[in-house]
Structures are given as C-alpha cells and as structure tokens.
Design goal:
With 273 residues, this protein is mainly β. The chain has one helix spanning 2-8, and strands at 13-14, 20-22, 31-33, 36-37, 41-44, 46-51, 58-63, 71-77, 84-92, 102-112, 117-128, 136-141, 143-144, 152-158, 170-179, 193-196, 203-210, 214-222, 227-235, 238-245, 252-259, 264-271. The strands form five sheets. Strands 1, 2, 6, 7, 9, 12 and 15 form a seven-stranded antiparallel beta sheet that branches.
C-alpha cells in the first residue's frame, strides 16, 4: 500500500507563496467533469463542482446519498514538519430538523520499517455542525506525536460521521494548504493537555486547562477518524481533570479532541488490554 500511494500520486509542490505547501489539486480546480474530482478518491455519496463565492474559484460539494454517506480522500508524499493546516468549508443539513456532523481529518504519517506499519507523526481533526453553514477558513496547528519527519499525508473529508446519517447533507470544501514553520507561534503549545496512564487499560485521566469559563466537548476517535465517544460539560477557568472509563473499548490507537469556546486540542493514546 505504501509504495502504491507514493508512486501513483503527484509529489508535493509549493503553491502561491513560498511559506505554504500544497499538493495536486489542493485547490479543487481540476475536474474530469462536474461530478468527478481529479486526484481525489470518492469513497461514498457524491461530489459535485460548485462555485466558491469567497474567491470565485471552484470548490467541491460532498453529499450524502441514499446508498452511502459522502466520503472523499486523498493521499500523497509529504516530508515537511509543517505547523498549521488551512482549508475552507461550509456545512448544510439535508433537512431543517436533521442532525449531522461532518469531519475533515488530516494525518501526517511515516512508514516504520521495524513494525511494517504506518506511524502517526501529526494530526488535525476538524468536526463541524449546522452552525458552520457559511464559507469559512479553518486554521489550526498540527499536534505532533513524534520528532520524526513524515513521508506521507492522508486527508479524509466526510459529510457525515453519524451512524444514522441524513440524505442530502452536504459538506463544501476548498483550498487546502499547509504552513511552513518559520515565524509561526502556536498558543496550543503553551496549553496543558495530557492523558494518563498511556497506554490505557481501563480508566484514564485527561488533563487540560481553561483560560476562561467554557462549554467543553471531549471527542474520542479511532484511527479511522470515527468518533466513538463524546462527552459534553461546562467548566470554570483553571486546570481540569476528566476521568474516562475505556473498559468497553478495543485495543488500538485512539485520539482525543478537546473543544472549548476558543480552542481545539488533540492528543494520541493507546488502549492495550
């Protein structure tokens, strides 16, 4: 799988400005026709060419269909330890009374010859709801789990990650880019975020800090990006500790995402039984 991905897909190139990295059709400008997007793989639902009103260019509308939820992916060689990812998106439900959650998952990986498997070097998981109904630019720093340089990048966009998804829900996406390290400061690096113990056998404590009172959502996702547990609460300023029971979870690699009023943080952990 590793060699197929690296050979079949175009190597990384610089875009518009030198401090940003892009990849083949990262701006979603190239279409085989109005329903087939070049360099990307459609794994479910449908994709159509749309006008992106922000800059007059084209974007893609990823839609849930009766047979399957919308899923779009791309994989390409990538070797830079970039600090931040950008992309434009908006989200629209299939009906006024429906409820769905979209997801964009960006993972930097490296092939580990010792274990003959892919090691996750860094990751960003962005989930969206109906509140994201107009075009907006997402910008957030990568969370790094290893000092190694990656060799590949995988991006998955899903118009629904719910088990009972809604037909006609649409995730619009456009303009993916990565920012190089020079001159970039990230506030997330100064925040307290950890999970203990790691690896986890049954119970674990997630520790994080809040700069102000906030509603907090903690999402637990598996290696595919699927949210397998979610916790919502209201917390006051200061250091927080959340006890979570993982006894019903299978062994494997997982990620936690902590969403507050003005911040999103992610971390990696392993469940070993």
């Amino acid at each position: 799988m590793k060699s197929t991905l690296l050979i079949a897909l175009t190597f990384v190139s610089f875009i518009a400005r030198a401090q940003y990295y892009g990849f083949a059709n990262s701006g979603l400008e190239n279409w085989t026709n109005n329903t087939t997007l070049s360099d990307w793989t459609l794994g479910g639902g449908s994709i159509t060419k749309v006008q992106h009103v922000k800059d007059g260019a084209f974007g893609g509308a990823l839609k849930n269909e009766a047979a399957s939820a919308g899923k779009l992916s791309v994989a390409f060689p990538f070797t830079a330890r970039v600090t931040r990812a950008f992309f434009d998106y908006k989200f629209a439900l299939g009906s006024a009374t429906a409820a769905d959650t979209c997801l964009v998952d960006i993972v930097l990986t490296k092939w580990n010859t010792s274990t003959s498997s892919r090691e996750v070097i860094a990751r960003i998981i962005r989930t969206g709801t109906i509140t994201d109904f107009s075009w907006q630019t997402f910008s957030y720093p990568f969370t790094y789990f290893s000092p190694a340089a990656p060799d590949s990048c995988f991006i998955v966009a899903s118009s629904s990650i719910n088990s009972g998804y809604n037909v006609n829900t649409v995730l619009n996406i456009d303009n993916f880019a990565f920012q190089a390290p020079s001159g970039i400061a990230t506030t997330a690096a100064k925040s307290i975020t950890s999970i203990y113990p790691n690896p986890v056998k049954s119970n674990a404590t997630i520790t994080y800090d809040l700069k102000k009172d906030s509603k907090v959502t903690i999402n637990i996702s598996d290696i595919t990006g699927k949210v397998v547990a979610s916790y919502n609460m209201e917390k006051s300023t200061g250091t927080q500790q959340e006890q979570i029971n993982f006894e019903s979870f299978k062994s494997g690699i997982y990620f936690y995402e902590i969403k507050t009023a003005d911040d999103v943080r992610t971390g990696k952990f392993t469940i070993s039984k």
